[in-house]
Amino acid sequence: MTSVAVVLEDELRIPAESHELDAFRRWVHSPDFPERGRVDYLAGDIEVDMSPEDLYTHGTAKAEIAARLHVLVADEDLGAVFVDRARVSHLGARLSVEPDVTVVLWASLAAGRVKEIAAASGKPGRYVELEGAPDLVVEIISDSSARKDRERLPRLYAAAGVPELWLVDAREELLRFEIFALVGDGYRGVAPDAQGWLPSALLACEFRLLRRPAGGHRWGYRLDSRPFTR
């Protein structure tokens, strides 16, 4: 039987051979790959989300978390923080995704746990993808990604060996901010203290995500951090 391409929304054409991870990664870096939406490779399945980002239950929360992590990680020259279109692939886990926020420490690059994939131009210092297990991944749950973020991605991030996973769900009245640490071959949620602080062993800090009204009916967020004290 001849394989055929899949066309979605009259604008996204998924090549037939992209069910293989190597072919998918080649497509990702080709001129034919879409400039909008999120397209993930999850153990042989290609998941496409072309829905617009919710500004105040997704976008502003992501911006706050990325900004705080940048201050803690990049400003101290411990590593790099990437937002949105930074692709992460892992051969063993058969995974290729663009997390909402990704943190890679320089120590992990030096140890070879993560490597940078050079751009096709070959220019020094130009990279287009991370291969391996980043140190921290953050996913902000949306209506279209809830099952993937809570079920499929954690299993694959664990298989890839990502040490820490943060999940945020700001869609309902109760804001949910969870930190998961890799224990064995799966994630275990860390327990908050009485004030809602969650420890991150990776960053040696405790974190608390707060939400407040902003501009009337909109939401604003603040990610507080303090040295790990427990």
Give a short overview.
With 230 residues, this protein is of the alpha+beta class.
- Characterize the main sheet: 6 strands, mixed
Mean pLDDT reading: 92
CATH class value of the largest domain? Alpha Beta
CATH superfamily of the largest domain: tt1808, chain A
Describe it.
By secondary structure, this protein is an alpha+beta fold. The protein folds into two domains: 6-49, no CATH class; 55-227, tt1808, chain A, CATH 3.90.1570.10. The chain is built from four helices and 17 strands. The protein has helices at residues 21-28, 55-74, 106-111, 146-160, and strands at 6-8, 12-14, 38-42, 45-49, 79-83, 87-90, 95-97, 101-105, 114-118, 127-132, 136-140, 164-169, 176-183, 186-189, 198-200, 205-214, 218-227. The strands form four sheets. It has a six-stranded mixed beta sheet, with helices on both faces. A hairpin with an 8-residue loop joins strand 9 and strand 10.
Protein traits:
single chain, 230 residues, alpha+beta, tt1808, chain A, 2 domains, six-stranded mixed β-sheet, 4 helices, globular
Chart the SSEs and their pairings.
Layout: E1 6-8, E2 12-14, H1 21-28, E3 38-42, E4 45-49, H2 55-74, E5 79-83, E6 87-90, E7 95-97, E8 101-105, H3 106-111, E9 114-118, E10 127-132, E11 136-140, H4 146-160, E12 164-169, E13 176-183, E14 186-189, E15 198-200, E16 205-214, E17 218-227
Parallel strand pairs: 6-10, 11-12
Antiparallel strand pairs: 1-2, 3-4, 3-7, 5-8, 6-7, 8-11, 9-10, 12-13, 13-14, 15-16, 16-17
